[in-house]
């Protein structure tokens, strides 16, 4: 860990702990988040964790930038990581099928695997949630096995159905809402991940374990099995 504090706006500071994306960063980032919330208290407006940083938005009327920087430095002195399993573990069911995951076969062929082996590998580990972004409730997770790593589509789709599970580079994600998108789709999830009433189910520091289900179970859980075309 290498703490650096950078000005991000008149009332915001970027607290940078690392330079590279790594699952091992998360216990440090979560620990830093807890320390900063405790230290700033009511003077904290928002704290947004990401892969290597935390964006800290503070009350400019209560603190100067110099005072905020000093408070960050004091609160993170001798920081120790939280245990890796601090966040909630979510078991997320997925129907992996070519009709709703049109890149499933492409990824398998490129990796020299069968589609069943791709599914097995995708379900074989717990993925930490790095950050939320792009769309409400869109959780960036990783890291998938290097064999499954896949570049984003050259041309994003104008419409990706809600619940679609995808891979981009070594990250994986679930589209919480129907939206445009360029990730490689391998299946679909029937779980509601975001609502205006309850916000996002997944939060930074949580972990996700994907569980393969069959078509009947997917429909029973309320999934939409409308097929989609492969990318061109």
UniProtKB/TrEMBL annotation:
Signal peptide: none annotated. Keywords: ATP-binding, Hydrolase, Nucleotide-binding. GO terms for molecular function: ATP binding; hydrolase activity. InterPro entries: CT_C_D (IPR003833), Cyclophilin-like_dom_sf (IPR029000), PxpB (IPR010016). It comes from the Bacteria. Residues 3-202 form the Carboxyltransferase domain. This is Allophanate hydrolase.
């Amino acid at each position: 860990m290498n703490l650096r504090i950078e000005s991000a706006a008149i009332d915001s500071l970027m607290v940078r702990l690392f330079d590279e994306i790594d699952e091992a960063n998360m216990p440090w980032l979560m620990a830093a988040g807890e320390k900063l919330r405790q230290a700033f208290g009511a003077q904290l407006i928002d704290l947004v964790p990401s892969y290597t940083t935390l964006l800290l938005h503070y009350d400019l009327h209560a603190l100067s930038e110099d005072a905020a920087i000093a408070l960050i430095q004091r609160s993170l002195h001798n920081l120790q990581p939280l245990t890796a399993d601090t966040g909630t573990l979510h078991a997320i069911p997925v129907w992996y099928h070519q009709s709703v995951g049109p890149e499933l076969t492409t990824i398998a062929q490129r990796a020299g695997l069968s589609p069943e082996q791709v599914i097995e590998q995708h379900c074989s580990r717990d993925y930490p949630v790095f950050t939320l972004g792009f769309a409400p409730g869109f959780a960036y997770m990783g890291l998938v096995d290097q064999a499954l790593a896949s570049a984003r589509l050259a041309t994003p789709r104008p419409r990706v159905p809600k619940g679609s599970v995808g891979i981009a580079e070594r990250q994986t994600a679930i589209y919480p809402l129907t939206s445009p998108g360029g990730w490689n789709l391998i299946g679909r999830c029937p779980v509601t991940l975001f609502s205006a009433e309850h916000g996002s189910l997944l939060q930074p520091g949580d972990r996700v374990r994907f569980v393969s289900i069959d078509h009947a179970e997917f429909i029973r859980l309320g999934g939409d099995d409308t097929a989609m075309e492969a990318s061109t």
